[in-house]
Design a protein that fits this description.
With about 130 residues, the protein is an alpha/beta fold. The protein is built from 3 helices and 5 strands; from the N terminus they run ββαβαβαβ. The chain has a 5-stranded parallel β-sheet, with helices on both faces.
Length: about 130
């Protein structure tokens, strides 16, 4: 099996680090944010599978987003889709992933280019295009 990497969206893909064709996106964004997220990815030409946080937008936190990513990585491993590297920019989420997924090498994308707190992308919400 070829190597499969995982990518965070905000702070990684959003700053121009893009996944390869077989890689996956595991985002802390709520499933409620999927319409604008999928539109943004489509406009960037990115068609990779995306795993959204099942929590409602108003209930998710940076910690719960990291826990969602760790659960998703564990599920993928159980399905024989082990993620080798995970590209992440949020130290809080990295801590959560490292606690549960020691087989994953975290690629820390350290920068101050984006806000790490919960916010929606208004330019991609319905009615704003």
């Amino acid at each position: 099996m070829s190597k499969i990497n995982g990518f965070d969206l905000d702070g990684v893909i959003s700053i121009g680090i893009h996944p390869g064709p077989n890689d996956v996106i595991i985002t802390g964004r709520s499933i409620e944010e999927s319409p604008e997220t999928l539109l943004m990815l489509q406009e960037k030409g990115i068609t990779n599978e995306v795993f959204f946080n099942p929590l409602p937008y108003n209930e998710k936190t940076r910690t719960s987003s990291g826990q969602h990513k760790a659960r998703t990585l564990k599920t993928l491993k159980q399905l024989k889709i082990p993620i080798t590297n995970f590209f992440e920019d949020d130290p809080i989420q990295i801590t959560e992933i490292e606690k549960e997924c020691p087989w994953v090498d975290i690629v820390y994308v350290k920068h101050d280019l984006t806000n790490k707190e919960n916010q929606r992308a208004p330019e991609y919400q319905e009615g704003n295009k």
